[in-house]
């Protein structure tokens, strides 16, 4: 008979880490990815350690830095960032991912720690805001760039848990655009673009652009960032810059879309993301 997985319910981060290290248990937060393991033909782990009851992993605090606990749900993040124009892109990412039921369960930590999930909405939004992550284990904490966690989650975590995300307060203009296959549906997006722009006198001074779902791991788009610097703050101009610099993307082929299509939709998505950021500057409603 197959033993059902064991569930650990720690009350401290230390106990959670001990369950991972000593019993080989796997962290579980909202469970929206873990619960679908059979659909991906992945076996259940022999044990899971529930993180959502840990108070240290909850809460959003907005001060000189923004601190987001790993067990904050997409819906909670959307609520906490709704009144912050500089977080418009992150708000959009949290408020538009998946569907309402998933957003009430899925957590920030699960979104960033799920290996082999290229279509996470929060990753590009946080990458272009210069986010860092704090991981706990061995009785101490380690802070590292989000890009390091995304590119090598196994070594960044290695028996640790993601405790929180931190990012510096800024006055950047931020925007987020995603292309689901079915409008309004819960499909994973074919491509995602997030932008964070510093601008003055109608010109872009510096740009950060991050892309999700096009390659296996979300990443920044340095060629476009360089091309946008000094350009007018204009979605149509951003589309032209994106068309000139899109050659470096190797789109991934998957059941929802071929790689060439993901690459092709990038320039218009860049235009939409810049338009979204401009809405923030114009004081447009955040929905
Ligand atoms: C139908 C459907 C559609 C979806 N569409 C989208 C979408 O469009 N965009 C989107 O962004 N998301 C989408 N999601 C959500 C997707 O599952 C995300 O990856 C989700 O955010 C995972 O969060 P979770 O808390 O449920 O993670 P879980 O399922 O609990 O865990 C996922 C992984 O992360 C690890 N983990 C979780 N928390 C931590 C932590 N603090 N430290 C270390 N490891 C940790 C777990 O061990 C596991 O490997 C969708 C989900 C479903 C079911």
Helix and strand arrangement:
Layout: E1 6-8, H1 13-23, E2 26-28, E3 47-50, E4 60-62, E5 65-69, H2 74-81, H3 88-96, H4 100-105, H5 108-113, H6 122-127, E6 132-137, E7 140-145, H7 146-151, H8 153-157, E8 161-168, E9 173-180, E10 189-200, E11 203-212, E12 219-220, H9 222-228, H10 235-245, H11 259-264, H12 266-281
Parallel strand pairs: 1-3, 2-3
Antiparallel strand pairs: 4-5, 5-8, 6-7, 6-8, 9-10, 10-11, 11-12
The structure holds flavin-adenine dinucleotide.
Can you tell me about this structure?
The longest helix has 16 residues. By secondary structure, this protein is of the alpha+beta class. It is 34% helix and 24% strand. The strands form three sheets. A five-stranded antiparallel beta sheet has the order 4-5-8-6-7. A four-stranded antiparallel beta sheet has the order 9-10-11-12. The protein has a three-stranded parallel beta sheet with strand order 1-3-2, with helices on one face. The radius of gyration is 19 Å and the shape is globular. Helix 2 runs antiparallel to helix 3 and helix 9 crosses helix 10. Bound molecules: flavin-adenine dinucleotide. The site of flavin-adenine dinucleotide (FAD) has 33 residues, from strand 2, helix 4, helix 5 and strand 8.
Write a brief structural summary.
The protein has 287 residues and is an alpha+beta fold.
The biggest beta sheet reads: 5 strands, antiparallel
- Tell me the overall shape: globular
Subunit arrangement of the protein: single chain
The residue ranges in which pLDDT falls below 50 over 5 or more consecutive positions are 283-287
The radius of gyration over CA amounts to 19 Å
Number of helices: 12
Helix content: 25-40%
Please provide the count of β strands: 12
Rounded average pLDDT: 93
Secondary structure class reads: alpha+beta
Topology pattern, helix = H, strand = E? EHEEEEHHHHHEEHHEEEEEHHHH
Q: Ions, cofactors, ligands: which are bound?
A: flavin-adenine dinucleotide
Cα separation of the termini: 50 Å
């Amino acid at each position: 008979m197959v033993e059902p997985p064991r569930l650990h319910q720690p009350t401290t981060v230390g106990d959670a880490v001990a369950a991972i290290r000593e019993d080989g248990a796997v962290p579980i937060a909202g469970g929206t990815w873990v619960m679908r393991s059979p659909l991906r033909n992945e076996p259940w782990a022999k044990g899971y350690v529930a993180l959502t009851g840990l108070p240290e992993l909850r809460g959003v605090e907005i001060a000189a830095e923004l601190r987001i606990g790993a067990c904050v749900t997409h819906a909670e993040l959307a609520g906490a960032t709704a009144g912050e124009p500089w977080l418009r892109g992150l708000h959009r990412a949290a408020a538009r991912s998946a569907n309402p039921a998933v957003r009430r369960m899925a957590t920030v930590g699960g979104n960033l720690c799920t290996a082999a999930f290229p279509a996470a909405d929060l990753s590009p939004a946080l990458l272009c805001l210069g986010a860092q992550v704090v991981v706990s284990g061995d009785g101490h904490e380690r802070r590292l760039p989000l890009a390091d966690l995304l590119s090598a989650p196994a070594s960044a975590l290695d028996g640790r848990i993601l405790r929180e995300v931190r990012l510096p307060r800024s006055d950047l203009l931020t925007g987020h655009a995603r292309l689901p296959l079915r409008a309004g549906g819960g499909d994973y997006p074919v491509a995602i673009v997030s932008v964070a722009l510093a601008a003055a006198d109608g010109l872009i001074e510096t740009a950060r652009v991050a892309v999700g779902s096009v390659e296996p791991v979300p990443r920044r788009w340095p060629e476009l960032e360089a091309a946008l610097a000094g350009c007018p703050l204009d979605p149509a101009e951003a589309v032209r810059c994106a068309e000139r610099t899109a050659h470096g993307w190797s789109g991934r082929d998957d059941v929802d879309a071929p790689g060439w299509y993901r690459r092709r939709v990038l320039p218009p998505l860049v235009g939409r993301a810049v338009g979204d950021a401009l809405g923030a500057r114009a004081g447009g409603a955040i929905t």
